[in-house]
Design goal:
The protein is of the alpha+beta class. It has one helix and seven strands. The strands form three sheets. A three-stranded mixed beta sheet has the order 1-5-4, with no helix packed on it. It has a two-stranded antiparallel sheet with strand order 2-3. Strands 6-7 form a two-stranded antiparallel sheet. The structure holds zinc ion.
Length: 111
């Protein structure tokens, strides 16, 4: 199976994946794919739309991941299982502030 044969990517906070607890991964279609750690595979399949979702586990709970939108502008991506408010629920002003903060952190870490 090719390495990049996934329909979707989902970031999940490592803190949410406590062994023995089933985590409900949200698919873009509104379906949920349950996953129970320890994970045997690095992807789950949505029971509703059959999308193959690659799970990217982020250590701890970083709150947000910076991505790029279609125009190349930095945008916040939600981390599932995070205690942080989902980016689309934040006011635009707050989103901008967080993006600036995360960018500064990334610069400090030399990334
Ligand atoms: Zn789905």
């Amino acid at each position: 199976m090719p390495e990049n044969d996934y329909d979707l990517y989902a970031f999940v906070a490592g803190d949410a994946l406590k062994e023995g607890h089933t985590f409900q991964l949200q698919c873009n279609c509104g379906g949920t794919a349950p996953m129970t750690p320890p994970l045997k595979t690095e992807f789950v399949v949505c029971p509703k739309c059959a999308s193959k979702i690659k799970v990217l586990v982020i250590a701890g709970d970083p709150g947000y991941i910076i991505g790029r939108d279609a125009s190349g502008e930095p945008t916040l991506l939600s981390v599932q299982g995070s205690a942080a408010t989902p980016p689309h629920q934040l006011p635009p002003e707050e989103r901008r502030r967080i993006i600036e903060r995360v960018k500064q952190q990334m610069r400090k870490q030399g990334k």
